UniProtKB/TrEMBL annotation, chain A:
One of its GO terms (molecular function) is ferric iron binding. Coiled coil: none annotated. Keywords: Dioxygenase, Oxidoreductase. The gene is pcaH. Belongs to the intradiol ring-cleavage dioxygenase family. The keyword Transcription regulation does not apply. GO terms for biological process: 3,4-dihydroxybenzoate catabolic process. The lineage of its organism: Bacteria, Bacillati, Actinomycetota, Actinomycetes, Catenulisporales. InterPro entries: Intradiol_dOase_C (IPR000627), Intradiol_dOase_core (IPR015889), Intradiol_RC_Dioxygenase (IPR050770), PCDO_beta_N (IPR024756), Protocat_dOase_b (IPR012785). This is Protocatechuate 3,4-dioxygenase subunit beta. Residues 86-114 form the Intradiol ring-cleavage dioxygenases domain.
Amino acid sequence: MVTQQEIDKEIAELAGRVTPGGHPPRLYPPYRSSILRSPRQPLTLVTDPDAIELWTPVFGTGDVTELDADLTVRHSGEPIGERITVTGRVTDRDGRPVRNQLVEIWQANAAGRYVHRREQHPAPLDPNFTGAGRALTDANGDYRFTTIKPGPYPWGNHVNAWRPAHIHFSLFGTAFTQRLVTQMYFPGDPLFAYDPIFQAVTDPAAQQRLIAVYDHDRSVPEFSLGFRFDIVLDGPSATYFEEDHQ
Amino acid sequence: MSELASEPSSAALSRTWIEHRPTGQGVRLEPTPSQTVGPFFGYALPFPGGPDLAPAGHPDTVTVHGYVYDGAGNPLPDAILDFWQAAPDGSRTGTPGSLRVDASNGELLGRDGVRFTGFGRVATTGDGHWALHTLPPAADAPYIAVGVFARGLLHHLYTRIYLPDAPDDALLSGLTPERRSTLRAREDATAAAGRAYRFDIRIQGDESEETVFLDFA
């Protein structure tokens, strides 16, 4: 397996590149799994204004309840770890809120272990923490989760590869073309420089958009530390939206 | 900020088609970048009944199934597919009820067997296989939209599944026969039950192999 030094060199060669929307290129060789899992043919442009992809799946209060956004109350006891509150607003690129839409998250526990059978990291499971949650955004596009801070964990990309602590996010917009799966990171993580998944976002300004902000006003006294992670969904240059009739 | 363009012919709700043109006014926000779904989504994203878009026992139900392959021809055991389509009556607005949560214990129940929500989700099994049970999409949107997510894929991909009898639309007509064939499911007489179609997704390959993936710019 290659060393961290070799990966660092490959990361450095690609660093700083500005990409459309700040999205990572699908082929980013320092992340070894991308080599065989990225297309070689150019994507095909779709300009059909009637495309089903310009509409979006809908979810309702029968699909998600408020309790689904609290990852700390799923079991009989309290999970181990730093309790955190993660809040933010989901908007499109014009700042219009994405209302009543599904936000899904999943994460490792405080020791950096996922509840997944294929996870090989010999860190302890926490019987009081599963690590999956769901929420619907409100009328302002805001969401809110209560969870614990996930730990960093090792993985098999290269020798001594460690993922920075992160929470996976899955989002729907007002069009299927605005679909986004991403990862939220925590400010000041010393592992950013070594991680080829984070560094696959090569534009430093775009990297900042993956990092939550510690927000003391959103910390809950005697309970949890507050992080803000606002999400801007990319999408086609034209979209449908619900008109306000007021 | 933006200009009204044409009204979509099939708009079912009070929705308006907006085309963004640079006007020099207003600053567009920079998007949040994509990251890979990773390998450990299995306890979070799949839901009971995710593959069963068709209401239970519906006589028009079709099965669409296949494998997801990488550039070496190996199946992906850790891909997850989102499906989104118009209802058979042409409705594009979707319906809630894909997940349905049991309020008493937070467990997901899955569909109620009545509503056609338009949305499905299937994770591949260890052999890279997936199967969707749905109703044929409407003639004026004659395809199933697919979002492809996988470990190793840093930004998801969009493609479409067209059943064999779906008419050539603008997208299909603009492709070479070789590329077009990657978007056509083919009848599968070997399937155990009912009307079945095979549709494989090849994330990487030469022109005749790699699935056509879409850019909505």
